[in-house]
């Protein structure tokens, strides 16, 4: 946020002759001769001494004296308070016509004709560089913009592209890769690049593709994850995940514990599956597809 202070370099006193025998009354600019902050100067033999500066709510200051009021530093020049510098809230001094940057704030002390303006404006500091409010710049994979409240993430740059940008929450498929600019929290964005499809043991599978690896049958999902469909024995018999089969005296089991899928096959003399399972040395797990 910027703030602007404007001061006209005008005389800040009112001088008038109280009488012809030697008295001058000085008051703050615009005030009458009876104002409580008036200063009365005697005049000797018609000689008028250098005049002090009288400012409203700032007292009187002798000719040549310097003083500070608000965001300006003055020097009294024969009754006229002239601005010689600007002063920030932390008492940093900015010379006339200069710009000063401190703690992410730009301070300006500009002279325009007979007036002096003091302006302070927020800036952003990133990787050793100051940016003005409204400036956009790149930091790694992210497009950032300097705002009044700090740096905001505007989007993600596509990998290996100079101009392609994704807005937060947007994804785009380029060739065999999906680029995602994911919003993970307020003010936080994550950029990821994933192969379109699924990857297992350095092999890439298309979305929807079904394949078998070490007796486990998978299907590639749209989000790149693998869905376990079930198990397959050496002869190609399919057992749905969480199911048990008794075929020709052989029990086939396909079950999942936590994130691991198991295929178990063993012989049984009974023609009842429940008896085979009960007598099995392999404990029976709750048959739940996760």
From TrEMBL:
Transmembrane segments: none annotated. The keyword Signal applies. Residues 1-15 form the signal peptide. Residues 53-116, 123-187, 196-259 form the Abnormal cell migration protein 18-like fibronectin type I domain. It holds the Pfam family Fn1_2. Keywords: Signal. This is Abnormal cell migration protein 18-like fibronectin type I domain-containing protein. It comes from Pristionchus fissidentatus.
